[in-house]
Amino acid sequence: MKKKKNNIKVLSQGAALRFLLTRVFDALNTVEGAMVKIKDPIEYLKRLEFHKNSKNYEDYFF
Fold first, then answer.
1. Measured between alpha carbons, how far is 44 from 30 in angstroms, rounded to an integer?
2. How many CB atoms lie within 10 A of CB 62?
3. pLDDT tens per residue across span 14-46
4. pLDDT at residue 2 above 80?
C-alpha cells in the first residue's frame, strides 16, 4: 500500500505537466477566428512546482 501512496507524486507531476503543455500549445497555436478561451498555463506550472518539491505522499493530505 505504501508503494502505491509513494507513486502519487510521479502521477501528479505527469498530470500537471500534461495540462501545462496542452495549455501552452493551445495558446501558441490558436487558429484565427476560433472560439477558444485561452487558459493561463502558469496555474499548472505552480502545481508542477508543488509536486516537484513535495517530499512524500503525506504532503498531499491535510
1. 19
2. 4
3. 999 999 999 999 999 988 888 888 899 999 999
4. no
Q: pTM to 2 decimals?
A: 0.78
One-letter identity of residue 27: A
Name all contacts of 58-62 with Cβ < 8 Å and 24+ positions apart.
60/8, 60/9, 60/12
Q: List CB contacts of 12: < 8 A, sequence separation 6 or more.
A: 47, 51, 60
Supply the DSSP symbol for 35: -
**Which three cell numbers, joined as nine digits, stand for 50?**
508543488
Residue 23, CA atoms < 13 Å, CB-side half-sphere: 15
Q: Which set of grid coordinates corresponds to residue 59? A: 504532503
Residues 9, 60: Cα–Cα separation, whole Å: 9
